[in-house]
Amino acid sequence: MMGSPGSGKTTVGRLVGQKLGLRTLDIDDDHLEPYWKMTVAEKLAEVGSDRFIEEEGKALLEFNAQNSVVSLTGSNPMHEESMSYVSKSGMVVFLDVENEDIVQRLERMKVNRIVGQGPGVTMSDILQYRQQFYEKSYDVRIIVEKNETQESISNKVVEVVKRTKNHKGYVSTRRIPNEEELKSMTFFDVVLKGLAQDGGLFIPAFKIPRFSLGELDRLVSMDYSDRALRVLEKWISPYDCHPSKLKEFIFKAYSNESFGSSLVFPVRHLEGNQYLCELFHGPTASFKDGAMQLMPQFFMEAIKSSERDIGNACKYLILVATSGDTGGAVLDGFSRHSGNSKIGVMVLYPEEGISEVQKKQMTSMAGDNIHVVGIRGDFDVCQSLVKRAFTDNILSMLLIQSTGADLFLRLCSTVSAYLELVRMGVVEMGSDVDLCVPTGNFGNILAAFYAKEMGVPFNQLICASNKLVHYDLRKRSLIQSFSPAMDILVSSNLERYIYHKSDSETVRHCFDSLIENRFFKLPKEVGYLLDPHTAVGKVVADKCQTKNRPVIIASTAHYEKFAPEVLRILGNDMGNAPVSDMFDKLSNICSKPAKHNNLRDVLSRPKVHQKVLEGDYKKVTGDIENFAKRI
Ligand SMILES: *Cc1c(COP(=O)(O)O)cnc(C)c1O
Q1: Which residues sit opposite 70 in a β-bridge?
Q2: Where is the Threonine synthase N-terminal domain (predicted)?
Q3: Ligand 1 mean position to 55 CA, how many Å?
Q4: How many angstroms is it from 191 CA to the middle of ligand 1?
Q5: Dist CA 436 CA 511 (whole Å)
Q6: 553, containing H or E segment
């Protein structure tokens, strides 16, 4: 047990010991004092505050215990070497209590000074300073709620320890695995494999983790990266990816440089009871950046750990089918986060039916290890080509289809959108809100379903779609629209959803809001430019929204990505004018949201990928193999 002085380590430790039937030890009383043969206060007086940490660390290195719950001291985590020793021999549980609460508790306990607190330094300052050491040293974090009882905290510890020790991995939607296999697929396996070999998709075999409202409340005042870290810690076992790594990846992914602000995905009022969650501030201006700035980092880590296992024999080719936005986001993510490694990225996009800006983003990405190919066919054709190539094992090298683990990453933005509404004072923690998501491959709405299952108070989850709605592919043909990422008939993630649903008797989730809606008009009075995907979301929210409940509409792309289409809808068709002129025109028509940072640069890049192929399996796999030889 680790945490600030006054976080309750000793009492909680004792309760946890009782519940787990383990011995309880306190580093102060049971180790330091007998080891030093004097009280901690005497030692502190003897060596002084500065040397104390060192002496305490040395003593900890001499400590041995098994089958015990051990309460560390508040200053132990400041000694790195001894903490890494501790973490090798057991699970470090961090009781993460809000500093303000600690200050109050310490006042009640009449503690007015702690180790390392120099003159003139307030208790709050020193606690804040120490936080970084705690953040570096834990394996699992317990988010302690305001006024939470020791009993409740200890129950959480017991649950988390059990869950972490018996962590179940990931399974395919198409097969019920045996007990042995349940543990065999780790998070990094899923990152590397993407699709299950049987053609199914991976889903977690473990119970969906939950947040209490008190825990969510602690996240309200945080920046996006800190929220995301706490969400992902609940999903990803520390034995798969340690929280210290997770934190490093998250902070790299969601830097101000890439997303413009630490809010990352800000929420703003649209009109009435409608709020937009702006998911488009990333480098390629769609919400796909949210996952794709993180995925490549997980991927590199997964390669590192698999090469440790099987030797340095693998070459990697990331094969992506895109409906327009994923391709650009993957190319940007890998070029930023994969270092100098030779990983090939190949993107298949529908030659007809994505926007000019989207096409330009991808076909102008230079690099020996990048191959971008247009396919004469729609996204469904591209996706089925990729899936088939994958299940056929067409290459001896590892093929990746990047739709596996990114669901958790999307989940973070959904959880965060709710927290933003609370932070803005629109709702109180615990009040229901609805969520309306423009839907193509069902990824976002599935992430929303997971967020709701985690305990975020979402009521209706509304799927905004351009078309359909019986899931019967025999009679349907695709209606092309201006929102290409939604022009998808065979929604991949529907499979995950069906799995979860058929696994449970209760109807947990409102999924009846798929609306026939072939066209839309931008609402003029709003004074805000929506991209065509978000506009579909808005139209559907107008129809489905419950009167008194706020709705968050996921704003999935920046309107500039669809500048010609948006202008045409607004009655300002500019024909073949340069797209940059269209950007100017649009920002003159409406100043909200602000122009995107990167898209203008994209327009001036030369096109480097010219290839367009028929949607023919042999031709495409031939091209994949040729590219694979070059990397
Ligand atoms: C990908 C995408 C969607 C659809 O999201 P899914 O997760 O596939 O349902 C909607 N809008 C935009 C702009 C997209 O790029």
Answers
A1: 25
A2: 170-254
A3: 56
A4: 20
A5: 11
A6: strand 551-555
Instruction: Provide the phi-psi class of 21: left if phi over 0, else alpha when psi is between -120 and 50, else beta.
Output: left
Instruction: Supply the pTM of this predicted model.
Output: 0.89
pLDDT of amino acid 500: 64
Task: State the average pLDDT for the chain.
Answer: 86
CA–CA distance, 314 with 459 (Å, rounded to integer): 46
Is any ligand 1 atom within 6 A of the Cβ of residue 500? no
pLDDT tens-digit map of 382-395? 988 988 887 777 66
Q: Which of 33-42, 311-320, 333-342, 437-446 has the lowest mean pLDDT?
A: 311-320
Mean pLDDT along residues 94-122: 90
Give the number of the atom of ligand 1 that is nearest the alpha carbon of residue 442: 9
Query: Domain segments of the chain: what residues?
Result: 9-166
Q: How does 160-188 read in b/e, with b if 16+ C-beta sit within 10 Å?
A: bbebeeebbbbbbbeeebeeeebeebbbb
Instruction: Give the right CATH number for 9-166 from 2.102.10.10, 3.90.580.10, 3.90.1150.10, 3.40.50.300.
Output: 3.40.50.300
Measured in Å, residue 233 CA sits from the centre of ligand 1 at 25
C-beta 556 within 6 A of ligand 1: yes
What b-and-e string marks burial along 357-388, b requiring 16 or more CB atoms within 10 Å of the CB?
A: bbbbbbbbbeeebbbbbbbebbbbbbbebbbe
Which two tokens mark 558? Answer: 């920046």
